[in-house]
Amino acid sequence: MSMIIARDLVKTYGKGSSLVKALDSVSLEIDAGQFTAVMGPSGSGKSTLLAVLGALNTPEGGTYLVDDIEVFALGSDKRADFRREYLGFVFQSFNLVPYLSLAENVMLPLAIKRLPKRQKLDMAHTALERVGLAGKEKRLPSEVSGGEQERAAVARALVNQPPILLADEPTGNLDQANTHRMMELLKQLGVEGMTIVMVTHSPTCAGYADRVINMADGKLIGEESGVTLATACAV
Amino acid sequence: MNLTDIALLNLRRKKAKAAFVLAGLLTGVATMVALMGLGSALTHEINHKLEKYGANILITPRSDQLNMSYGGMSLGGFSFDAKEIRQADLGAIRKIKNSANVAAVGPMVLGRTEAAGRPVLLAGVDWGEARILKPWWKLKGKEPGLGQVAPGAEAARLLGLTTGSKVKVAGRELTVSGVLEPTGSQDDHLLFMPLAPAQEILGKQGLVSLVEVAALCKDCPIEAMVTQIDQALPGAKAVAIQSVVKGRMEAIAHFKRFALGVSLLVALLGALVVLVTMMGSVKERTGEIGIFRAIGFRSSQVMRVVLTEALILSAAAGLLGYLAGHLAGELALPLFSQDGGGHLPWDPSLAGAALVLALVCGSAASLYPAWMASRLDPAQALRTL
After folding, report:
1. Interface contact B12-A99, CB threshold 8 A
2. Residues sharing a CB contact under 8 Å with residue A176, sequence separation 6 or more, in sequence order
């Protein structure tokens, strides 16, 4: 069953001769629990696709349904609610709030929920434990490594238990060991039923996905399975 | 962790910026409190003086013949020989509508007579009422009783009288019970006696020449009381003596208006400091706001974070501004007070006004930055990271 259905998504930047079609009639369906990697060179439109799937960017054309909700028919507030309930984001540059501790960063999506403080703390603790950061709740982002910051960002994306995780180059700033650890974590989340869409340049990372979509010039130009890619990379 | 916690944590992180906003608003509030406090203290001082001032309504016989002055104040048509007020009628003053505001009614009989062979003005007064009406009178000696007289300082000098000496007044030998210390008024030239013996000497039994009334309290309806007394005593004319007090009150009213103007100007400058600082803060936090929007904060919730920060700082500026303004007012009061002293009372209503001013200025100045923050496009905001 498809969790994400996108049809004929069009997104342009600029005007006249400088007009760039970042998304050119992009259609795709992603099943619930599927780990999908989006690959392509810089400027291929993969980050724009992720921003549109994340309801952060509104396309000029096309439809986008998540769990049968037509996302771009929602008003601004409802769209914010949708992001909070359905989506978890992991950004390339971690995007942790610098003056909040790791636990407070993880609790951010819960800040607008009417839950007891204790419960919010427990949920943050569980999420941090899930990504292997138990005991580092009170550290500021500047006091932990890049890999730990990225895992804290994943914990923040997980704390609300959204059905979909969107990750934009989640390992772009990590070393090999941390990259492997992060990808194993995402793979495990996929196994547990989370729908994951990850943008990456790295074939190695894409190899962890169930499905790899290739983009160029704002178009989907093909797809393959992650296993195939991983095998090819290994060779 | 809720929106208020986020606001508090950001303030804690950006202490210098928070202190700058706080100082801007605090200066405005403190200026308002100091100037308003000074205005209130000076008003209180003049009210206090008003209550110590003595008579502020003078009742004279209604006449259109002769003019004379008393105590530097103009009495309407007044003639010793023409008309007098019947003492028995004075009870009506205690029955006027605003009789509760009447502190004292002091009848006085005046008449020309001779003392020690020289012409003098003899005044018969009710000494009990005179203590309220003329609180500045100081006697070297005692108040005169039967067979006694108390000359004013100048009269005593001219007649060569001292406490205990004897003087012949209208052929009667009287003892000087005390001498009035100089007052700088016409009282210095008079001979004073109790009312009844003076009426007897002057041949004006049951009559008085004028009546002084003290209607002394803050916001007394003096003009209304004058009208009521006029109606109660048809043969007399009541005049309010307020020119000096009114002049001083007018000066204080001017000061208060000036204070309000300056306060509003400084508060406006404080609000501008808040506006500029909060705008800078929002721009600096574009990426952070992008994160908030990406993880599901509504526009209004982003706005609430910014406004909560402003309100926390504004409340602190209101309270600290009141304390600072009160202290500044205390220090400045001796420069403005005629007495050169006194103190500013702790005024809960002024404290409340300071808090409200700070909250209104702080939140009004933060509305635009908060709105800007709420309108940030999350995708663009995230690109700044």
Report:
1. yes
2. none
pLDDT higher at B378 or B367 = B367
Q: Taking residues A78-99, report their average pLDDT.
A: 87
Contact B294 A109 (CB under 8 A): no
pLDDT, tens digit, for every residue of B268-317?
888 888 888 888 888 888 888 888 888 889 999 999 999 999 999 999 99
* Same-domain pairing of B186 and B96: yes
pLDDT in tens, B79-94: 444 578 999 999 999 8
Backbone angles phi and psi of A100, in degrees to 5: -105, 145
Token pair of B105, please?
């009614």
| Residues A64, A75 contacting (CB under 8 angstroms) | no
Residue type for A213, please? I
Cβ–Cβ pairs < 8 A, chains A and B: 80
B262 with B139, same domain?
no
Query: What is the band of A47 on the pLDDT scale with cuts at 50, 70, 90?
Result: confident
Q: Between residues 340 and 379 of chain B, which touch chain A (CB distance below 8 Å)?
A: 378-379
Evaluate whether B202 touches B113 at the Cβ level (below 8 Å). Answer: yes
Chain B contact for A134 (CB, 8 A cutoff): no
Q: What is the interface pTM, i.e. ipTM, of the complex?
A: 0.86
As a whole number, the mean pLDDT across chain B is 84
Average pLDDT over residues A73-91: 91
B65 and B99 inside one domain: yes
Q: Would you give the end-to-end CA distance of chain A in angstroms?
A: 34
The answer to whether residues B160 and B114 belong to one domain is yes
pLDDT tens string B15-55:
888 898 888 889 888 988 888 888 888 777 766 666 555 55
Domain boundary among B240, B265, B297: B240
Return the pLDDT at B251: 72
Question: What is the number of domains present in chain B?
Answer: 2
Same domain, B327 and B366: yes
Architecture of domain A2-94+164-234: 3-Layer(aba) Sandwich (3.40)
Beta bridge partners of B84: none
Q: Which residues pair with B119 in a beta bridge?
A: B114
Residue ending a domain, among B240, B272, B301, is: B240
Q: Are B79 and B199 contained in the same domain?
A: yes
Q: Are residues B181 and B264 in the same domain?
A: no
Nearest by CB: A80 against B2, B6, B298: B298
Q: Is the Cβ–Cβ distance between A166 and A195 less than 8 Å?
A: no
B370 lies in which domain range? 3-49+247-383
Same domain, B253 and B217: no
